[in-house]
Design a protein that fits this description.
Blueprint: H1 8-11, H2 14-42, H3 44-66, H4 69-88, H5 92-107, H6 120-133, E1 157-162, E2 168-174, H7 184-198, E3 203-209, E4 214-220, E5 238-243, E6 253-257, E7 260-264, E8 266-270, E9 280-284, H8 290-301, E10 306-311, E11 327-331, H9 334-360, E12 373-378, H10 380-390, H11 400-405, E13 411-418, H12 427-432, E14 435-439, H13 444-451, E15 467-472, E16 478-481, H14 495-504, E17 516-520, H15 529-532, H16 534-537, E18 557-561, E19 567-570
Parallel strand pairs: 9-13, 9-14, 10-11, 10-12, 12-13
Antiparallel strand pairs: 1-2, 2-4, 3-4, 5-8, 6-7, 14-15, 15-16, 17-18, 18-19
C-alpha cells in the first residue's frame, strides 16, 4: 500500500524562515525606537537650540525683507560694527557664542499651546441655549434665518465668557431685525429663556441695543451689604437712599465698610423747590427693610431740617427719635397721628401763605418757611383701617395738601407700606410720590406696577433686608441696597450698628423718662405745662389764640401727649387742632 505524502506546509521550510525574519524585524524596530528615544533625551538641548536658531533665522529674514532697500546699507554697517566690537573685546567671541546659544534655547523652548474657544461642555451649553432661542427668534419665510434648528450658534453669539465653574458669565447675541424688541412682553420672554438656560439663582443684567439688534447678558455681583448708617458726604437737599452698581451712576461717595473706607456708587434722591420728584413711596414685604429705609432718611433729614414721624405699626420703630432736637413729634396712635398730620397740613398752608405774602411785598421769605419739614409715615393703611373701624377721618386725607404743595413749601413726604396694602393707599399718595422704591422679594410684574417700568435684571428668590430697586421719576430702574439702620433699642441689633445709629442722633432736648412728646421749633418746650399735659388730663383741647402782633410766619408749635387724645398745635392761621374721641 502506497504512503501518502505529507502536506507541503510541513515539509517546506520557507514559512518558518519567514516567521523568523518577521521576529527579527520586530526586534530591530523596537531597538531602533529605543535608540531614537535615548538619542532624543541626550540631544534634547541641541534640538531645542537648533529649533530656536531656526526660528531666530526666520524672524531675521522676515525683518530683513521688511526693511526698505535704502535702509539696508546702514543696517549692514551697524551689524558689521557690532561684529568688529565683539571680536576686539576680550572673550568677546565666546560671550557672543554663549549669548546666541542662550537666545536659541529661549526661542526654541516648548510652549504650552493656548487653549482657544470654549470647551466641549461649554460648547454643549451654548448650543443648547441657541436651540432654546430658535422658537422665539425665528419666523417663517425668512430667507436667511439666524436661528434654525441645528444651525450655527457661532453666527449669533459674538462674545461669551464662563467662570471657573463652567457657568455662563457674559453673553452677547444678535437677533433678527423683525424681532419686536420694543415690547416689554417680548423682551421678558427672551429674558426668561436666558435666565432658565444660563443658570438660575443668579441675577442677570440685560442690555438691549435696539439700533444694532444685540442683547448683552451679564451676571451681576451682589451689592455690598456691609455699609451701615453714617454721615454721608452730601449737600443740603440730597438724601442717600442706598447704593447701586458702579456702572449705573456717575458718582461715588466715601463710605466706611467692613474692609475700611472705600468709594461706593450711591442712589441720591434730591428734594426741594426744584426737585421733579419731591415725595417718595416705598413698598415691600414684611421684613424687607422699608422701615429701615425710613429710619435712614429721617436721620439724614435731621441734619438740615425737622422731622415728623408717624408709626402706623405701633411697634415703636422710631422710638430712638423721641425727644431729639429737630424731631417735632413721634406718633404711633390713631389720635396722635390724626392731630400730627392735620397740623402738618395746616403748616404747609401757613408756609405757602407766608411765602406768597413775602414775595408780593418784595421781602425775603421768612426763615421758618425755609427750613425743610419731613413727614415720615410708616404703614398709613394700618391707621386708615383703624380710623374706618372707629368712624374717624382717614389719616391719609391730611397728606393731600403736603403732597400737592409740599415742594413749594419745603415739605417732603415719605410713605412706606406693604404690597398687600398698596390698594388701600389714597390717590394723592400714589399720584404725587414720583420717587419709588421696592424692597424685598418681588416679581417683575410687581416691580413694574410700582416703579412704572420693568427692571433690567432678573429678581432673585432670596435677598437680604434692604435690597431692592429704586426709580427716581422717569429715570432708569436701579438696584439698591439700603444702609443698615436698625432700631438701636432692639435687642437683636449688633453693637456696631447700634453705635452707628446713636452717633447720628441729635442731642436730646427732653428727659429720657418724659411721658409727653412736647416739641417746639428750635428745641424749646412749651411755655405752659398745663397745655403740654392736655389741660390736666381733660378730654378737650385748650384753644390757643395768637396775639395781634404775632407775624404770619411765626414758628409752629406742637404739643402732643403720647398715648392720649389731648393735642395742642400752634402755627399759621389755624391755631389749634382738636382730637375727637
Amino acid at each position: 500500500m502506497a504512503r501518502r505524502p505529507l502536506p507541503r506546509i510541513l515539509t517546506d521550510s520557507a514559512p518558518l524562515a519567514r516567521m523568523a525574519n518577521f521576529a527579527s524585524l520586530a526586534r530591530g524596530r523596537e531597538f531602533a525606537r529605543t535608540a531614537a528615544d535615548s538619542a532624543s533625551d541626550v540631544f534634547h538641548p541641541l534640538i531645542t537650540i537648533g529649533r530656536g536658531l531656526r526660528r531666530l533665522a526666520v524672524a531675521a529674514r522676515g525683518r530683513w525683507d521688511a526693511t526698505p532697500k535704502e535702509s539696508r546699507g546702514p543696517l549692514l554697517f551697524f551689524i558689521g560694527a557690532c561684529v568688529l566690537v565683539v571680536a576686539l573685546v576680550p572673550y568677546g567671541p565666546l560671550l557672543a557664542l554663549i549669548a546666541v546659544m542662550a537666545a536659541g534655547a529661549w526661542a526654541g523652548r516648548e510652549r504650552t499651546p493656548v487653549v482657544t474657544g470654549p470647551s466641549e461642555a461649554e460648547t454643549e451649553r451654548l448650543r443648547a441655549l441657541y436651540e432654546a432661542l430658535v422658537p422665539y427668534l425665528s419666523a417663517e419665510g425668512d430667507p436667511a434665518p439666524l436661528y434654525t434648528h441645528g444651525g450655527d450658534w457661532e453666527r449669533v453669539f459674538g462674545a461669551y465668557a464662563f467662570d471657573d465653574n463652567g457657568r455662563l458669565e457674559r453673553l452677547q447675541l444678535k437677533y433678527p431685525a423683525y424681532f419686536t424688541d420694543g415690547e416689554d412682553r417680548s423682551r421678558a420672554r427672551i429674558e426668561q429663556v436666558l435666565y432658565a438656560k444660563a443658570g438660575r439663582g443668579r441675577e442677570y443684567h440685560f442690555a438691549w441695543d435696539e439700533l444694532a439688534n444685540q442683547l448683552t447678558v451679564t451676571v451681576l455681583g451682589a451689592l455690598p451689604a456691609d455699609i451701615a448708617a453714617q454721615r454721608f458726604v452730601t449737600s443740603p437737599g440730597e438724601t442717600v437712599l442706598g447704593f447701586t452698581d458702579p456702572d449705573s451712576v456717575q458718582r461715588t461717595l466715601p463710605v466706611d465698610g467692613a474692609d475700611g473706607t472705600r468709594d461706593a456708587p450711591p442712589v441720591v434722591w434730591r428734594t426741594g423747590p426744584r426737585s421733579t420728584e419731591p415725595h417718595l413711596l416705598a413698598l415691600g414685604q414684611s421684613g424687607s427693610g422699608t422701615t429701615t429705609l425710613l429710619r435712614s432718611i429721617a436721620l439724614q433729614a435731621l441734619a438740615h431740617g425737622d422731622v415728623l414721624a408717624v408709626d402706623g405699626t405701633g411697634t415703636g420703630e422710631f422710638g430712638c427719635l423721641v425727644g431729639r432736637r429737630g424731631v417735632l413729634a413721634v406718633e404711633s396712635g390713631l389720635a396722635g397721628a390724626l392731630a400730627a398730620l392735620e397740623w402738618a397740613s395746616q403748616e404747609t398752608e401757613r408756609r405757602l401763605v407766608a411765602a406768597n405774602r413775602a414775595r408780593q411785598s418784595g421781602r425775603p421769605v421768612p426763615d421758618d418757611t425755609r427750613r425743610p419739614l419731613w413727614i415720615v409715615v410708616d404703614r398709613p393703611t394700618a391707621l386708615s383701617h383703624l380710623a374706618a373701624a372707629e368712624g374717624r377721618d382717614d389719616p391719609q386725607r391730611w397728606l393731600q395738601v403736603p403732597l400737592r404743595h409740599g415742594r413749594a413749601a419745603q415739605v417732603t413726604v415719605v410713605v412706606a407700606d406693604q404690597f398687600e396694602s398698596a390698594d388701600l393707599l389714597s390717590d394723592p399718595v400714589r399720584a404725587h410720590t414720583k420717587a419709588r422704591v421696592v424692597l424685598g422679594t418681588a416679581t417683575a410684574e410687581e416691580v413694574r406696577a410700582v416703579l412704572g417700568a420693568p427692571p433690567h435684571t432678573t429678581p432673585t428668590a432670596s435677598v437680604p433686608p434692604g435690597r431692592g430697586y429704586a426709580r427716581l421719576g422717569s429715570g432708569p430702574v436701579l438696584r439698591v441696597q439700603v444702609p443698615a439702620t436698625p432700631d438701636p433699642f432692639d435687642d437683636a441689633t449688633s453693637e456696631a450698628h447700634r453705635e452707628a445709629v446713636l452717633a447720628l442722633l441729635p442731642e436730646r432736648t427732653a428727659p429720657d423718662d418724659t411721658e409727653s412728646l412736647a416739641t417746639v421749633d428750635g428745641g424749646s418746650a412749651p411755655s405752659d405745662p398745663a397745655r403740654a399735659n392736655g389741660a390736666d388730663g381733660a378730654d378737650g383741647v385748650d384753644e390757643a389764640e395768637p396775639s395781634a402782633a404775632e407775624p404770619v410766619g411765626a414758628a409752629a408749635r406742637v404739643s402732643i401727649v403720647k398715648g392720649g387724645d389731648a393735642r395742642t398745635v400752634t402755627g399759621g392761621s389755624r391755631e389749634a387742632l382738636s382730637a375727637d374721641r
